[in-house]
Amino acid sequence: MSLFSSLKLREWREDDIAPMAEIEQQAYPYPWSAGILRDCLHAGHLGWTAWSRGELVAYSVVQAVLDEAHLLNLCTAPAWQGQGVGRGMLSWVMQQCAAREMQRMLLEVRASNTPALGLYRALGFEQDGVRKGYYPATGGREDAHGWRI
Ligand SMILES: CC(C)(COP(=O)(O)OP(=O)(O)OC[C@H]1O[C@@H](n2cnc3c(N)ncnc32)[C@H](O)[C@@H]1OP(=O)(O)O)[C@@H](O)C(=O)NCCC(=O)NCCS
Questions:
Q1: For residue range 80-97, what is the model confidence (pLDDT) as tens digits?
Q2: Which of 42, 47, 49, 118 could be stapled to 59 by a disulfide with Cβ–Cβ 3.0 to 4.6 Å?
């Protein structure tokens, strides 16, 4: 049995915000705050959390716009990375979106985010342009690569 298939997945809810915000701090150079996460939850964005024995392992947030899914966040807690969790989570999120009649998924990713770029490529996403200076970065701005499937 793969590690991912041993995780317990469910839709996100209010008491997920604090553990998610903690992982944000560990996983991203520019983490989302608890406030941003809460705004996304209250805005009705879709989200899922994956758990192992009460420990938050991974999560994802998606904004549905008509038949399009915009992947806003996908994160594996650093201690759990490199074990197939991100791949399993993204596949599962894509299935959830397809089940809700969404035909496409798009996302932005930092040009320097090698693990994420590898994951999106591995799951069949294709690059769809560059958004110049989309992200804040040390000493300036960083481009985003747009990807879609
Ligand atoms: C991107 C992220 C979600 C990947 O999660 P993960 O659980 O470590 O990924 P997996 O172990 O499932 O790896 C899946 C694929 O991603 C790619 N990948 C993962 N880590 C990689 C690395 N360090 N370097 C290159 N490619 C990598 C590979 O293609 C890998 O497939 P493979 O194992 O068959 O080679 C994780 O690195 C993360 O949470 N990063 C911080 C948050 C973030 O940047 N999210 C993306 C925002 S757009």
A1: 999 999 999 999 999 999
A2: 49
The one catalytic residue among 14, 68, 101, 120: 120
pLDDT at 42: 98
**Which domain CATH number covers 8?**
3.40.630.30
> Which domain does 91 fall in, by range?
4-105
What pLDDT is attached to residue 39?
Answer: 98
Site to substitute for ligand 1 among 5, 24, 32, 119, most atoms within 8 A of C-beta: 119
Looking from the CA of residue 122, the nearest atom of ligand 1 is 29
50 neighbors 9 (Cβ within 8 angstroms): yes
* Ligand 1 pocket at CB < 6 A: 27-28, 74-76, 81-87, 109, 113-116, 118-119, 122
Residue 138 lies in a domain: no
Q: Count the domains in the chain.
A: 1
